[in-house]
Amino acid sequence: MKNLKNITIVIFTSFFSIISCNDDFVYVESNDVNSEAYFNSEEEYFNALVGAYDLLGMTYQSSILGEIASDNTLCGGESATDVPGYQQIDDMIHTANNIQLRDIFKWMYAGLNRANFILEFQDRTDFEGREIMIAEAHFLRAYYYFELVKWFGPVPLVVDKRIQYGDQFSLPRTPVSEIYTQLEKDLIYAAGILPEVQTLVGRATKGAALALLGKIYLYQNKYDEASEALDDVIMSNNYSLVENFADLFENDTTFEFENPSHVDFDTDTIEIEDHILLNGKPVLYESVAPLDGLTSGTIYYAIVVDYSHIKLAATKQDVIDNRPIDLTSGVASVHTLFAQYENSQESVFEVQYSDMEGGGFGCFACVEGNIAVGFSGIRKYVGSPFGPRFESGYSFNVPTQESYDSYNDLDTRRDASILDIEKWVADWGTLGITISYGQGYEHTGFFNRKYLPRKRDANIPDPNLTNPNNYRSIRYADVLLMAAEAHNKKSSPNPALARDYLNQVRERAFGNSDFNITSLSGDALNQTIFNERRLELMGEGHRFFDLVRTGQAKNFIAGFQEGKHELFPIPVVEIELTGNNWEQNPGY
Amino acid sequence: MRIILLLLTFSLVSVVYGQQTINGKVFDAETNSPIPGATVIVKDRKIATNTDFDGLFSLNGVLPQDILIISSIGFKTIEKKVGNNFDFKILLQEEISALDEVVVIGYGVQSKKEVTGAVSVINSETIENIKPTRVEQALQGQVAGVNITSQSGAPGAGLDIRIRGISTNGDNRPLILVDGNVIEELSVINPSDIASISVLKDASAGIYGTRAANGVILITTKTGRLETPLKFSYNAYTGLQETTRKLPLLNATEFVLIANEAHAAGGEDLPFNYLGDIGQGTNWQDELFQLANISSQDINIRGGGKKSTYSSSFSSFSQDGIVGGIKSNFQRYTGKANYSVNPIQGLDLNASLLYSNTYRRTLPENSIGSLLYNAISMPSNLPVYDENGDFTRAVDQPIEVVNPLKQKFLAINRTQADRYSAVFGLKYSVLPQLSVKANYQGNYTEVRGRYYGPISDYGVEGVFSDKVFDAQTAGYNEPLDIYRDYTLDLLVNYEGTFNEKHNVKVTLGNSIFRTYQDGYGSIGLNMPVISDIKDANLADAQSIQPIFINRSNRLSDSRLLSYFARLRYDYEGKYLLTAVLRRDGSSNFGPGNKFGYFPSASAGWVVSEESFLENSSVIDFLKLRGSFGILGNDRIGSFRFVSLMNGEGVYTFGGNQLVFGTATGALSNPNIQWEEQESFNVGLDLRLFNNKVNMTFEYYKRTTQNLLLVVESSSLLGTAAPGSGNPFANAGTIENKGFEFEFGYQDTFFNSLDFGLNYNFSTLENNVLVVDNQIGYVLGGGFGIGNFEGPSRMEAGFPIGYYYGLKTNGIFQTLEEVDAHASQRALGAEAVPGDFRYVDQDNNGIIDENDRTYIGDAIPDITMGLNLSLDYKQLDFKAYAFASLGSDIVRNYERYGKLTNRPSYILDRWHGPGTSNTTPRVTTAANPNTRFSDFYVEDGSFVRVQNIQIGYTLANEFLDIESFRLYMSVNNAFTFTKYKGFDPTTSSGAPIGGGFDQGFYPNPRTFSLGVNIKF
Fold it and tell me: Chain A: nearest CA to B582, how far in angstroms?
């Protein structure tokens, strides 16, 4: 018994000594890396850079609202109260309480903070290729700031460090000119370091930095500098126009078929889709793996029969003659055929989207798809037996009749940019395919075809938020038109070169040189280039800002008040949250 | 009922006449040990005897109609009819005067008489009467100042306990300890294991310092007692559940008429041309609601020897849902074992183990597009199945409106939780006055989700983007969360009496607590088609991706280190004083802010002990008491003071593959510190008329300062980035005050009719005093689609989470009225007759978001509870009801699509001057009527008769068991309310935005039949 007593006392003593721990017990470190202790390896820099790219996805709001605010489109949607923030901007009755405007403000600052985070620690660890990543961070910061300046004018400029809690109360709005000076510096620096071709598609290149630099010069009417920067892009010979305008805005398409014998070679079924879907033009595909029985590395031609059937041919002529390859010796294997419309030779900078992850209305910033696409989709678009090409959406951002009519009938861009839904339904109807659709608010019969949801495989919830359509942020055609404008407006104008650039774009649009501009110069040429920008870039989110920077908005946008609507209001909540130190933009 | 009648008859016919000798034995009902020296008297005759050492007695000349009176000191006297019995087994219940009842308080017990804080107790009897499926329900309406709301009526859904109001917009849960062990998830406890529940409502919870700011609930479970033979108890019930309410909606004929009228008003073609006999159409609620089973069984074994006690229990519980049936089934299995022993004098060891296993299946609920939302929205003219026997497709409906029966069919998921708890304790009495105690409690919980997302084609056939739920491929999500926590307590207790008048009790303690969570799991894409979640296998997925990439699996780690001292002093049991000081350190705060000191004190004066009341014939007991203390709160999640790389950074670089990067997570604030609550309470306890009446009055005021709020911060800080968020800051003050009254009455009439009544009443006034985040408010909630931001707010001068929207002032009857009023265009369209006239709060001639104002709040002003019990011989009857007055609920379950169904109140719409001044016109055209306004805010007051129960206990003469009781009960029997929605008692529980009803799953009405056996 006594022994037991001793034992218990021992137990107690040891208990006490274990437990009576000191205050260190509540000093715990997280297993997640402290953000002050990050950037110790190439991998960590890269991971942070991915984080900085992430917010590019949220520029969808700029692209859809840039259209809705302009004369190109009406707001649309389900009803007059569907996304009131969009409706108000369309009607130019928006206030400083607009949720969607605040989104732009929020997301762009989120993005530039992540870029600044990398720049704050740019010198912590050295490795091969570090400068390129740092240059990309400069590019991204400029990209995000440019969006902010376009929408809100003067906003607080902070460089090479994060905006930390407490800083917000002492940051004034920086004059636009000062911000632009910084962005020019960033982009000149980035262009000096970035490679012409990146290791991964979608990362900023030298061309992207120069093109954005040129655009920023243009927004400041610095035409001499703009023409030089844009010429650098053109002279690099890294970019060219895609031959067929209609191909430009298709999604990348991957066709897979397991056993070649499953490929439907029944010539009877070819006719419907190949010619209409691909505008009668055989499209070049490359086989990633050689087909059994065929020589390795051969380039094959293919015709899309429908979305699960492809036809292969050995030569272009075979395609035209509808002669398929004999695949009778085919053994089961997977062949991937890849049509590249995204990140094409015309793409100078492209925001990358994916449909590999679901999304919901709860967190738009977490969505990896292009949200603007689902919002622009045709309401209740249904086809039978399958809906050709498109999928349904929320019917926002609907082009006006005037937009449609602004094109020449022979301009291939019209039908590639604006879908005339009645004509589309009628055309397919003659082929025995029934399409139905719903009419939303402000239905015009037109849809923004460039950014409509395309038929695709990975339809995961919510399919309208996860469309993979990349946003062609800066296309080579845009570069040509900006360069044309700059050359015609610079201190010693070069209208001939301007016309040459302009005509490159027009020749592609019409498929011939019949519509080339041969003699214009001065203001007349300026106006022609300006009109061409609308036709070429219809639906791409640039129109409102082109109207504003050229001082023409009041002539085109109903309800536009000069001296007020050039800028959007700083969200009133943001003014309050920074201590009421900022003055609101005039008129709001 | 028939069984009971039969048994009654049986007992009546068995009366036989004739003089006789009877024998018997008297036992302690609790311990089953014999009672020597008990008195046995034959009523009204001069025959009496005492039991011998073995509790035996014998009486001669007794008649069958005689009545025996058996009494013993410390036991309740009972009477027994002789009847034709010769051999009696008599069980006496221990008589505990209500004042000597022991109340569990922090780290110890105290007699009720000595309590100086606001403590309410619920005993096992009450719990047995209420038959809760979850422990929280046992508190509903039972205790003044405690408000319980259910997040949903779905089986296994959580309930929110709010003690004396809402003191923070963060975590308002009270601290819950089961036998000293912190248990945050009460679904793991089988209610019939519970011996008592103490609710510490004021600063007397201060012994728990931190975490006690929202009150403390102490649950003790049943254990064995020394020197008692093995005792079994078995409880079982089975029942059927049904919905308490179906909303009155338009039938097919009414729907078609209203839809045509709306289209005509909108200048659109009529959708329905044929207006013949359309009939009632489909009642989607009838299709969705069903009768559902519920059943419960538990067995409990208890006993004890000379030096050790043991108890063990097992239970199983299964409940189907009134929506979804087996698809929303909840199952719980629990096993529990306690053992305690004192191997040598002064040393006590105890150990207990608890295991529980729960399975839960769920359906989408209380959200836009959930099952009940769709049962309301689906038009009544559509059948459930189409001509092919497939689920009818909601083709012309908005993107979230789909066939709810198909939703039910496609719901394939299960959440499994396994929890292991262990408690080990040592107590050693060094001296009779001095003891030391050490306790270890540990919990390990694995929660494994299995969520299958099937191929879903809800809209037009083959079109996978028509509805938000559509998916062309099947996905699978299998998260695994592991929660671990442990607590180590060391206590030194001293008790001493000086001069026979000064009683001193001192407790010194040290406690450490750690809780941490690890998250694992994977997402599988392109899964094969399955119909039962058992067949889901991650390995079948075409590609697998972990849930947590580029961040640690350790999702949280919070620790507390506390030292505390408590002094209890009383002078002759008349003047009582308790003082507590606690020093807490929390890992949730940064260096320099980790430690806080939390003092509290309470005092009491037992007035009835004073000479001037000693001989009062009316007042048996009167105590005045008061308490004041400062309590801390650190429950904000770990590491919010430091910026971490746990955000989200995902991009795709060409092709269609996601690249996972890293980014900073939620914004940090290094300056966050303890939230502090000043808690003040005065109370009065009163017992009258020979303890038949007891009353308690309380007044309290709790002021929470330095509130830990997630404050809306400038977007310059990057808070909108994925995985980021606003920081915590100590930025607010909330005050809760109120008055509480508890009344109890207990008496016996006609010798055998026991009557008991308990009533409680509480008021609550919640007021936000300060929100210090520049904008002066915190936003929350969501109303409808595309509406104003933040329809619910926390703002100084208003109750937390008040509703912020437009005020209506009738309906425009004529164009002249429209023209005379401010323009409503900014709301979406210019008004026309039949639209709401909104109040121009800022008088600027424009109605817009700036005209929003207070239009109600979700916090009830008054809550009440009433318990009634009647026992007549072997029959018992119980009923209890509770009420909540003055809360508002937002009706947010209507979709307002062109062709969605509507509640039938729309039949009273405006359709011409003078037809209505409350319900607007119907139209498909643009209109401002669906913007958030007081039209959608309804009075959520209600009275609910929660339980009615009739039981019958079989006389133990016939069965050799202690008791055998059969009962029938109705749970959630009636609700009286004006609220139009399903259930006024549900709330998402969020302090801001909790009262938005998007089709709450109603709490079911349950009819059950049960049995309680003890032997």
Answer: 14
CB contact under 8 A, A103 and B720: yes
Measured between CB atoms, does B293 come within 8 Å of chain A?
Answer: no
Average pLDDT over residues B745-762: 86
Residue B18, pLDDT score: 58
| Sheet of B87-92, strand order | B56-62, B20-28, B87-92
Helix axes A476-489, A495-510, angle to 10 degrees: 150
3-state DSSP of B460-511: CCCCCCCCCCCECCEEEEEEEEEEEEEEEEEEEEEEEEECCCEEEEEEEEEE
Q: What is the pLDDT of residue B987?
A: 79
Q: How far is A469 from chain B (nearest CA, A)?
A: 11
A349 vs chain B: nearest CA distance in angstroms? Answer: 12
Mean pLDDT over all residues of chain A? 83
- Helix A206-219 / helix A223-235 crossing angle, nearest 10 deg: 160
Best mutation target among B368, B547, B561, B652 (most A Cβ atoms within 10 Å) is: B652
What is the secondary structure of A309-339 as a DSSP string?
EEEEESSHHHHHTT-----TT--S--EEEEE
Q: Which residues on B lie below 8 Å from A5 (Cβ)?
A: 344, 347
For CA atoms B750, B751, B752, B754, the dihedral sign is positive
pLDDT in tens, B32-44: 677 877 888 887 7
Chain B positions touching A373 (Cβ under 8 A) are none
Determine contact: B868 vs chain A, CB below 8 A.
no
The Cβ of residue B58 has, within 10 Å, a number of other Cβ atoms equal to 12
| Structure confidence at residue B433 as a pLDDT band (50, 70, 90) | confident
pLDDT tens digit sequence for A315-347:
555 555 555 544 443 333 334 444 567 888 899
pTM of the model: 0.84
All residues of chain A having their beta carbon less than 8 Å from the beta carbon of residue B453 are 460-461
Under an 8 A CB cutoff, do B470 and A468 touch? no
Q: How far is A415 from chain B (nearest CA, A)?
A: 24
Between the two ends of chain A, the Cα-to-Cα distance in Å is 88
> How is residue B64 annotated by DSSP?
T
Nearest Cα residue to A238 out of A206, A213, A214, A209: A206
Query: Which residues have CB under 8 Å from A10's CB, separation 6+?
Result: none
Which residue carries 């030194």 as its tokens?
A: B492
| pLDDT tens-digit map of A484-510 | 999 999 999 999 999 999 999 999 999
